[in-house]
Specification:
The complex is a heterodimer of chains A (about 260) and B (about 230). Chain A has about 260 residues and is an alpha+beta fold. Chain A has helices at about 1-10, 10-20, 25-45, 70-85, 90-105, 115-120, 145-165, 170-175, 195-220, 230-235, 245-255, and strands at about 50-60, 125-130, 135-140, 180-185, 190-195, 240-245. Chain A has two domains: about 1-45 and about 195-255, no CATH class; about 50-195, 2-Layer Sandwich (Alpha-Beta Plaits). Chain A contains eleven helices and six strands. In chain A, strands 1, 2, 3, 4 and 5 form a five-stranded antiparallel β-sheet that branches. Chain A is elongated, with a radius of gyration of 34 Å. Chain B has one domain (about 40-225): 3-Layer(aba) Sandwich (Rossmann fold). Chain B has helices at about 20-35, 55-65, 85-90, 95-100, 105-110, 130-135, 135-150, 165-170, 185-200, 215-220, and strands at about 40-45, 70-75, 110-115, 120, 150-155, 175-180, 205-210. Chain B has a seven-stranded mixed β-sheet with strand order 3-4-2-5-1-6-7. Chain B is globular, with a radius of gyration of 17 Å. Chain B starts with 18 loop residues before the first helix and ends in a 6-residue tail after the last helix. The chains are: A alpha+beta (about 260), B alpha/beta (about 230). Chains A and B meet through helix 2, helix 10, strand 6 and helix 11 of A and helix 1, strand 6, helix 9 and strand 7 of B. Strand 6 (about 240-245) of chain A pairs parallel with strand 7 (about 205-210) of chain B, so a sheet runs across the interface.
């Protein structure tokens, strides 16, 4: 019981001493888990490809100026379209149309179109008051590189159709503004990202550190080695009549003076 | 588990201003207090196993006594792994075993004035049955003779849990000091040794804890600081 009492009252110095004594075990734990993390990162590494396609459209309020009215009109158009693009019904619409587009594309027959929510989350609309233009963009990410271009083309094709032909479902968004396509860009550069090996390794290193600390404290708890005068007094009823300091700490101290 | 041979340095701390010397001086004072009622003339340090600082403590304690003007003799009765001669770099070819088997005279085995008031008898040549040698009456007679010439006799002995030598020599030891060492001694071995001490009725007057790390406070207010 006495012993437990002492062990519960761990001071910061005790903790540092435990870490100092078990440092090799802690380092081994970190290194092993880091290597495991690196191995895991290498084995599960999958490159993800990304491509962004944008459609620039210009709206016409009949005034073609930069007056406040005109700017507000543009903002309204942007807001209305952005809201429409946030609507999952719109996502389903785009999904269905893109699916149809892809079905007609012989090269893309084998592709599986991503879910409508996946499409929806990749859509965005932004408004530029200076240019009085809107930009729809669709960024698509996939581990299948071949899917990227047909997919972005299919989706942006739907957006272009909606812009030009309007939509029964989204009259407010596409039919109430005089919108004409200014141009579109399909960014040829497909960029790729890999799951970060460094990040995974570091996460495993942190786990290793935690495991190392747990090991250190359990090992210390189970250790039979005498750690202090108090422990000796707890386990043995012989009176302590002498304490001889550690020669290294004495030499260190005397060297400092 | 394999244990390091020794973590305690083999040296006599002669610098009287050092903390280590001061620690042994305090041990000597405490021992004096412990022997107010009955004077302990033959003193030995025991430890559960090897490498806990038994010999270093014994020799340094003897040194403190010698500096106080007492005539001191150290006898190495650790016949299993004699060590005392290493501390003083002295010849171990003629030691107590050689005297007990009659090869040399008692005069030839005493290394006189290794330090002032500090004589040493080394263990001597290895004998096949150390326990037999320690059980002989000759050693008791020899010790009785030595007690007349010295104020204090310090006897080094084998680790307590490993060999029965300590129990054999306990008949002529007045006081034992139980030596332990932080980060070396094992709690289960200490418990076992304590049981053995009790069951054999050894007169253990106190214990020493060696290798205690100095705290920051002790560092700051170390004796050299005054």
């Amino acid at each position: 019981m006495e012993e437990n009492k002492n062990e519960q009252g761990l001071s910061l110095l005790d903790i540092l001493n435990i870490i100092k004594r078990r440092i090799i075990g802690i380092i081994i734990s970190i290194v092993v888990l880091m290597l495991a993390g690196l191995g895991y990162a290498i084995l599960t590494d999958r490159t993800t490809y990304h491509a962004t396609t944008s459609v620039y459209v210009i709206y016409d309020n009949g005034k073609a100026d930069t007056s406040t009215d005109s700017i507000n009109y543009g903002r309204l158009a942007s807001k209305t379209i952005a809201e429409a693009l946030n609507d999952d019904k719109m996502w389903r619409l785009i999904y269905n149309k893109a699916n149809d587009n892809l079905k007609n594309n012989e090269d893309a027959n084998s592709f599986v179109v991503p879910s409508y929510t996946e499409i929806g989350k990749s859509l965005s609309a932004s408004y530029d008051s200076n240019l009085q233009s809107l930009r729809f963009s669709f960024t698509y990410s996939s581990t299948d590189k071949n899917l990227i271009i047909p997919m972005t083309n299919a989706v942006i094709g739907v957006l272009k159709d909606l812009t030009q032909k309007g939509s029964d479902e989204y009259k407010d968004a596409f039919n109430c503004f005089n919108i004409s396509i200014l141009g579109d860009t399909i960014e040829d550069d497909i960029y790729e990202t890999s799951s970060s090996k460094i990040k995974t390794t570091l996460i495993f290193a942190v786990v290793g550190l935690v495991v190392g600390f747990i090991y250190a404290f359990i090992a210390e708890l189970l250790s039979q080695t005498l750690r202090s005068k108090e422990q000796l007094e707890d386990i043995c009823d012989i009176k302590v009549i002498g304490i001889i300091p550690n020669i290294n700490s004495v030499k260190k101290m005397e060297g400092e003076k | 588990m394999k244990r390091k041979n020794s973590v305690v340095s083999r040296e006599i701390y002669e610098d009287t201003t050092s903390i280590l010397f001061e620690s042994f001086q305090r041990l000597q004072v405490n021992l004096e207090y412990a022997s107010i009622d009955s004077k302990y003339q033959v003193i030995s340090c025991i430890s559960s196993t090897k490498g806990e600082g038994k010999t270093t403590s014994l020799l340094n304690l003897a040194y403190v006594y010698s500096l106080k003007g007492f005539k001191v003799l150290v006898i190495d009765l650790d016949l299993r792994a004699p060590n005392v001669h290493h501390f003083f770099n002295i010849d171990n070819s003629n030691g107590i075993t050689d005297y007990l088997v009659g090869k040399v005279s008692e005069e030839e085995i005493i290394h006189k004035n290794i330090k002032e008031n500090y004589d040493v008898i080394t263990a001597g040549n290895r004998v096949p049955f150390p326990a037999k040698v320690l059980e002989s009456n000759k050693i008791i007679e020899f010790l009785e003779k030595l007690k007349k010439n010295y104020d204090y006799i310090f006897v080094d002995t084998s680790p307590f849990l490993l060999f029965a030598d300590t129990l054999i020599i306990s008949k002529f030891i007045d006081a034992f000091i139980f030596v332990t060492s932080v980060n070396v001694s094992k709690k289960n071995e200490i418990k076992e040794a304590t049981k053995l001490i009790k069951s054999n009725n050894l007169n253990v007057v106190g214990s020493i804890v060696c290798q205690v790390p100095l705290t920051k406070r002790q560092n700051k207010y170390g004796y050299n600081g005054y």
